[in-house]
Amino acid sequence: MTAAPDERRALEEARALELVVLDMAGTTVLDDGVVETAFQRAAERTGVADRMPWDDALAHVRATMGQSKIDVFTHLAGGDRAAAERATAAFEGAYAEIVAEQGVTEIPGAADAIQGLKDAGLSVVLTTGFAPVTRDALIDGLGWGGLVDLVLSPVDAGRGRPAPDLVLTALIRTQTSSVAAVAVVGDTVSDVESGRRAGAGFVAGVLTGAHDVRALTAAGADAVLADVTGVHGALAERGLLPLVATV
Questions:
Q1: Is 208 helix (H, G, I), strand (E, B) or coil?
Q2: How far apart are alpha carbons 63 and 190 in whole angstroms?
Q3: Rounded distance, CA 202 to CA 60, Å?
Q4: Of 100, 128, 196, 212, which is least surrounded by CB within 10 A?
Q5: Are 203 and 192 in contact (CB under 8 A)?
Q6: How many Cα atoms occupy the beta-carbon half-sphere of 184 within 13 Å?
Q7: Which tens digit of pLDDT belongs to each residue from 93-150?
Q8: 143-152 as b/e: b if 16+ CB within 10 A
Q9: How confident is the model at residue 244 (pLDDT cuts 50, 70, 90)?
Q10: CA–CA distance, 1 with 9 (Å, rounded to integer)
Q11: Mean confidence (pLDDT) of the chain
């Protein structure tokens, strides 16, 4: 039996998303090795990773891309929180130096992709493992201050990724109706795990950053896209866009 128009509309509304949570570096902001370079400068300036071979330290940095930087440095420092805090401050300073030296660039098409999601009736929140000072420098450098609804760092939410706090804080701050109405998109395993732990209705990985198809799929991604410009199409294909986008 075919559902009546009002019933079909109710089913579509129940499935439609309201919020897309996008990662920054590697997902919407071009990284191009900047994070690793900043980590290296911070490690050299503070000695935080001296307890292990540099290759091991760098492997840990790569594996934990997307996570809160203080958590990453706490591991490198062998649990020494004070040393981790010094290294985190050095990292933020080094990252700012590199941005000043090289500028900041979006992933090609990212701003248009974000605007397209907003035009489709979705709220868009950016999340990052960076401290607010670095996050805000990136937003200012890109001129994205008026583009997104909100930008969040771990300090705004409680815990960094892979905990669900950033996603759930985005949901609360945008007054999104439920976790099922949230999509999460990022380039790292931590991004995907964060979305899964939050109970997001759709979680996607992108291949413009740290981790590959196999890692993102194993972490639980519903889809792995070439880049952020594919998000709108992936949502449309699955019937997840708000009705405003389809009428």
A1: coil
A2: 9
A3: 28
A4: 100
A5: yes
A6: 35
A7: 888 888 888 888 999 999 999 999 999 999 999 999 888 888 888 898 899 989 999 9
A8: ebeebbebbb
A9: low
A10: 16
A11: 87
Which residues make Cβ contacts (< 8 Å) with residue 26, sequence separation at least 6?
A: 35, 65, 66, 186, 187, 188, 206, 208, 209, 210
Secondary structure letter of residue 4 according to DSSP: P
Whether the full predicted model's pTM is greater than 0.90, yes or no, is no
- Chain-centroid distance of CA 224 in Å reads 14
Q: How many residues does the chain have?
A: 247
| SS3 label, residue 247 | coil
Alpha-helical runs (H) found in the chain:
5-15, 34-46, 54-63, 69-76, 81-102, 110-119, 132-142, 154-157, 165-173, 189-198, 213-219, 231-237
